[in-house]
Amino acid sequence: MTPTKWSLVNSVRGLYINIHTSTVSGGEVRGQIQPVPERLTILGAGSAIAFGTGFKRKLGKAKKA
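Given the sequence above, the corresponding structure tokens read:
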């Protein structure tokens, strides 16, 4: 999937897909497509928040001293 198409899927929540086959013409597979964050993205965001919080605390203690 190209980045342009992926950004379209991200911007349009609840994109509906319906796949038809000759056996089941009414739609064999159908459903909503929604972006799911990858585990490493969540881990990276959590690590960045934890690092930022720790750095802010350390900086605050240094200013008080």
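The longest strand covers residues 15-19. Try to locate this feature in the token string yourself.
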